[in-house]
Amino acid sequence: MGLDVRLPIGAMFAVIGALLAVFGVVTSGDEQVYLRSLSVNINLWWGVAMLIFGLVMLMLGWRGATEGDEQGVHPAEQSPEGRATEAREHRLGLERER
Q1: 90/82 Cα distance (integer angstroms)
Q2: CB-CB contact of 17 with 52 (8 Å)
Q3: CA angle 82, 84, 88 (to 5 degrees)
């Protein structure tokens, strides 16, 4: 499976964060909206925070996709432990046909 969960989660947070930040900018002059939050434009600040989090997740997901060959799953024959396991399974007749 090649889907990295960071990509859709990052996209979702980035889109919702951008929408919330834009809403915060558009409603920044309306004091009635922000009375309950002690006149803090909470939509703007949480929108920016969500946008940054989403962009970081997207960056990590894209970086992980490009470095997958170096850090990903390797065949068992490429490590000493894998070679020992393969030899033991062959010796005991436990290997599966591919």
Answers
A1: 12
A2: yes
A3: 115
